[in-house]
Structures are given as C-alpha cells and as structure tokens.
C-alpha cells in the first residue's frame, strides 16, 4: 500500500511494476488535483488501482468514484475528473434536489474534503 499526494499521478509504470498481470495496488490519497482545483482530504482516501492486461481501473468504493481507460495516465485523469464531477454535482448541490442516497453520498464527500483551493 502506498500513500500518494496530489503532486504525483497515481501511475504504476508497467515495465517497472513488480505487479503481475493482472495487477492490483491500493494507494491512499491525502489530496487530489484536477485542473486548477486541489481537494485537500481530512483522512486518506483509498484508491484501488487495477491492471487486467487490457484496462486500468482506479476505484474508491468508499466514495463511489471510478475511472478506467486502456492507458494508465488516462485512467488516472478519468478518476480525477469523475471525483471533481461528483463534488460539483453532488457535494455542492442543495439537499432538496438530491435523493436520500445522494445526500448520504454528499455527506461522505463533505466529510472527506476539508478544503478546495485554487492551484496553478
């Protein structure tokens, strides 16, 4: 298990990876950067990274976030993009516009993120 910060992509180079095919590793994020936003976390967010020989999957079951692509960098980007979309569409939405399940999801996201700050 690896702890990762927002400064590095969640990339396991295939040629350098000790992981067999299929491969799996869990990293724990303390923050996440997407475009100009850095999401700073109150606790580590576990992200399971899986390579099945065809696609890369980045998944946080606890927060219902997933990103997958054939290319690892694109899967990392998809995960970050999905997280940000969930933040904007769920965590920032008024409760009256959300289902009960979405409100529970919103609560989990809001308890994870302590700050969103602009980065260059």
Describe how the helices and strands are arranged.
Layout (H helix, E strand, L loop, with lengths): L1 E3 L18 E12 L2 E15 L4 E5 L4 E5 L2 H20 L8 H13 E6 L2
Parallel strand pairs: 1-2
Antiparallel strand pairs: 2-3, 3-4, 3-6, 4-5
Top keywords for this entry?
120 residues, globular, alpha+beta, disordered N terminus, 28% helix
Structure explained in plain terms:
It contains 2 helices and 6 strands, in the order βββββααβ. It is an alpha+beta fold and 120 residues long. It has one domain. Strands 1, 2, 3, 4, 5 and 6 form a 6-stranded mixed β-sheet that branches. A hairpin with a 4-residue loop joins β3 and β4. It starts with a strand and ends with a strand.
Strand content: 35-45%
The end-to-end distance, rounded to whole angstroms, is 29 Å
Mean residue pLDDT:
86
**Topology as a string of helices (H) and strands (E):** EEEEEHHE
The overall strand count is 6
Radius of gyration based on Cα positions: 15 Å
Number of helices: 2
Structural class: alpha+beta
Low-pLDDT parts are 1-8, 12-19
Q: Could you say how many structural domains there are in total?
A: 1
Instruction: Describe the global form.
Output: globular
Largest sheet: 6 strands, mixed
Helix content: 25-40%
């Amino acid at each position: 298990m690896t702890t990762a910060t927002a400064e590095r992509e969640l990339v396991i180079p295939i040629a350098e990876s000790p992981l067999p095919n299929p491969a799996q590793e869990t990293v724990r994020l303390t923050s996440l950067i997407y475009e100009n936003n850095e999401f700073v976390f109150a606790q580590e967010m576990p992200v399971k990274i899986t390579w099945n020989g065809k696609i890369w999957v980045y998944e946080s079951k606890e927060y219902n976030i997933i990103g997958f692509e054939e290319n690892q960098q694109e899967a990392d980007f998809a995960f970050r993009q999905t997280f940000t979309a969930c933040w904007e569409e769920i965590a920032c939405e008024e409760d009256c516009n959300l289902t009960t399940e979405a409100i529970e999801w919103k609560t989990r996201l809001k308890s994870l993120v302590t700050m969103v700050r602009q980065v260059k």
